[in-house]
Design goal:
Length: 639
């Protein structure tokens, strides 16, 4: 009973927490899929297994003796021994701003003590190289990014010998009026609050689960307050990060913050959060107020960057954004300089600050309709190719096997133009979702076990130029509209139950057409050859062997004997003597074995009747014996 109550309480707690964390996705990568979601005790965040979001990878766990410094979600990890690119697919809100965090704690999970290095991609674009060398406590990558579709792909790409892995994925939906930048995403550089402390601040202190690290230089002077600081502006920095601030020490009038960049050309976006922690009393007189007002301005890399001077609000946050375009030699500095208008005793202060580098993601993702369609096709046919992950067309070196795409330019979404699923053991029907691949030119479904009919929609796919349906178990007739398509090449042989043309009927009828379909095709070709031969014979009878040596050896079975074309030539002495002209062919005189006289009838190329009738006549002759007819034993036909 007690247990049950505890369990119920647990469920309730989870629901409560999940509701509070709307817009959060917290995945404990590598957590076995049968483990239920859990509440991480330090943060209260509800983490769940990543198994539903990725088709590949193996669960691992960091070494026991290294566990102590990490929270539970970072103890398990997922590593990827197979494939070059392995991708998570996450449901997100299109065109909304997210903070995306990926956590990597190696923890010698494989016992090799060899810190891996690999690439991280967001959809088709490289986000960052993850190099864990020397990162004994792991590493975190964070970006503020707006997904362009409602499906976000985060891919780990193998770059060398080491295996990619990941410990946790954390997505946080942000307000769309914060961190607003044009055409770039914001890669985390640092997020600090200024206090002498060793406490990291994150959720639930920060409603968006941003992680704030304490930072303080010995030459600075710290001020703090025990009063409540109103943190309600659109950024909502956590109150805990605002109740302390750094001011210059040693009677200085400017506060200098410096940092370095690997790439000096990177553009930096700064978000600086201020709150006055030493408010002047309400009823202080005007003159004193002016004296005590803290007013300062920004100097970035030695230049005044922010025209207006800044006056922090009393116990309430204000946030200033500024952009730094170039840091000489990678050395960046921000100075807060006391304004001339603030001659009093108050020096500048800063409570918290975030810095990001701007990162461009130039490649457009594959057309989202194409992506949905190909994923439905993949799911329907249960295609489990290890390389069918992430964006189907990009990067081009990871183009899904069996696809081909059109690439206009980087800002145009690639389109799928070719789909080759031949020999994939596909079963079931031809999926209707293929028709949503509206730019498809080539469709190869040959050598599978597809059943059902040939769908009409194929005829309406305007871009299609080639369809190969050979060697399946398709049934019924091919839609006339499809056969009528002029510029479309259609292959369908090897489908025993498929009717080539016209309506198909009962199963017995089907059987007959199926046998005849290929035969008829063969014969059509054959008659064409025969026509050639005959035309030639009439012109230059002696050259026949040279003309068609292979055909000349073709033989057909007669119930009585097997006769080759060259034998016929011999028999009739190159069709020397015409003894009659029947319905659809000329009859020649000839000798069999140099003694027996025979009549040789050859299907006339000009005959309006075809092979079928000719064959019918032959069959009739075989059955009917009549005195006025040449004895069947002496009737030779060749067609
Ligand atoms: C790793 O974390 C431990 C405990 O927090 C800390 O003492 C140590 O300095 C950290 N190591 C590095 C390289 O950051
Ligand atoms: C944020 O985006 C949502 C959905 O697009 C929109 O309804 C809302 O008005 C936006 N808010 C702001 C502040 O832009
Ligand atoms: C905090 O500031 C906001 C906006 O200035 C205001 O609406 C709100 O009432 C303030 N909250 C408190 C507790 O004073
Ligand atoms: C700061 O200025 C005051 C008054 O001018 C002086 O007495 C004090 O020594 C100075 N402190 C430092 C650290 O320079
Ligand atoms: C950058 O700073 C480092 C030390 O912080 C210094 O050695 C270097 O000369 C500086 N580079 C430039 C271009 O200022
Ligand atoms: C294909 O397109 C049709 C009509 O536009 C739509 O109803 C259907 O949902 C689409 N299917 C997929 C998989 O996108
Ligand atoms: C993909 O299409 C391009 C352009 O149409 C063509 O040059 C290329 O050979 C095709 N690749 C494959 C694998 O079919
Ligand atoms: C990319 O191609 C599209 C369509 O042709 C065109 O409208 C667009 O201007 C091109 N963009 C660039 C950057 O070339
Ligand atoms: C169509 O598929 C069959 C079976 O895979 C194959 O033998 C044939 O060559 C294909 N036709 C074309 C034109 O690729
Ligand atoms: C099937 O075909 C035969 C002859 O080809 C025709 O007489 C018959 O009406 C057809 N049956 C159906 C159901 O179409």
């Amino acid at each position: 009973m007690e247990d049950r109550h505890r369990y119920l309480f647990f469920i309730f707690a989870i629901i409560h927490y999940v509701q509070a964390q709307q817009g959060f996705i917290s995945l404990d990568c590598g957590l076995p899929s049968n483990e239920p979601p859990y509440i991480e005790p330090v943060t209260g965040l509800v983490f769940s297994s990543d198994a539903d979001h990725i088709p590949s990878g193996i669960s691992g766990r960091i070494q026991k003796n290294l566990e102590a410094v990490h929270i539970k979600p970072y103890l398990f990890l997922r590593y990827f021994p197979d494939g070059l690119r392995n991708c998570y697919t996450l449901d997100v809100l299109q065109n909304r701003r997210y903070m995306i965090k990926a956590v990597f704690v190696y923890g010698n999970y494989d016992g090799y003590n060899d810190y891996p290095s690999f690439d991280l991609y967001l959809g088709p674009n490289k986000w960052v190289r993850v190099d864990l060398e020397g990162k004994v406590n792991g590493s975190v990558e964070e970006i503020i990014h707006i997904p362009s579709s409602n499906s976000l792909q985060i891919c780990l790409v193998k770059t060398g010998n080491s295996l990619p892995f990941i410990s946790a994925l954390e997505l946080r939906l942000l307000r769309n009026d914060t961190y607003v930048v044009q055409d770039v995403s914001l890669k985390h550089l640092f997020r600090r609050y200024y206090r002498q402390s060793d406490r990291l601040i994150r959720y639930p202190d920060d409603v968006y689960d941003r992680v704030w690290s304490p930072f303080f230089l010995p030459e600075w002077t710290q001020i703090t307050t025990s009063l409540d600081v109103n943190n309600s502006n659109n950024y909502e920095p956590p109150k805990a990060a605002l109740t302390s601030a750094a001011t210059p020490g040693d009677n200085g009038t400017r506060l200098t913050i410096i940092w370095t960049l690997d790439n000096p050309d990177e553009q930096i976006h700064l978000y600086v959060h201020f709150a006055e922690l030493e408010p002047v009393g309400e009823n202080t007189d005007e003159a004193l107020r002016t004296l005590f007002t803290r007013t300062f301005y920004f100097v970035v890399n030695g230049k005044i960057s922010y025209d207006e001077s800044i006056t922090p609000l009393d116990l309430a946050v204000s946030t200033v954004e500024t952009v730094v375009n170039k840091c000489d030699g990678g050395n960046c500095s921000l100075q807060l300089v006391r304004s001339e208008a603030s001659p009093g005793v108050r020096v500048p202060l800063v409570n918290a600050m975030e810095a990001f580098t701007a990162i461009k993601f130039p490649h457009s993702e594959t057309n989202p309709d194409d992506v949905i369609s190909i994923k439905v096709i993949q799911a329907t046919y249960e295609l489990s190719r290890v390389d069918w992950q992430g964006d189907p067309c990009l990067p081009q070196q990871f183009l899904w096997t069996g696809l081909n795409c059109s690439y206009m330019n980087m800002s145009t979404s690639p389109r799928i133009i070719s789909l080759d699923l031949s020999s994939h053991k596909l079963t079931g029907k031809i999926v209707p979702d293929i028709q949503n691949l509206t730019q498809l030119q080539k469709l190869d479904l040959s050598n599978n076990k597809l059943t059902g009919g040939v769908p009409e929609f194929l005829a309406n796919m305007k871009s299609l130029l080639f369809i190969n349906l050979s060697n399946n178990n398709l049934v019924g007739s091919i839609p006339q509209a499809l056969l009528d398509r002029k510029n479309l090449k259609l292959e369908f042989e090897g489908n025993p139950k498929l009717c080539a043309t016209g309506p198909c009927n009962s199963s017995s009828g089907n059987k007959e057409t199926t046998v005849i379909a290929p035969v008829a095709a063969a014969i059509a070709i054959f008659i064409a050859v025969l026509v050639l031969i005959i035309v030639f014979i009439k012109k230059r009878p002696s050259s026949i062997r040279a003309l068609h040596p292979s055909r000349a050896n073709l033989s057909l079975e007669n119930k009585k004997r097997r006769i080759t074309y060259s034998e016929i030539l011999l028999m009739t002495n190159n069709f020397e003597r015409v003894i009659g002209e029947g319905g659809f062919g000329v009859v020649y005189h000839g000798y069999l074995n140099d003694s027996e006289q025979v009549a040789v009838k050859v299907l006339s190329p000009s005959s309006s009747q075809g092979y079928k009738e000719f064959k019918a006549e032959v069959e009739l002759l075989l059955r009917v014996h009549h005195i006025n007819l040449v004895d069947m034993n002496n009737m030779v036909w060749w067609f």
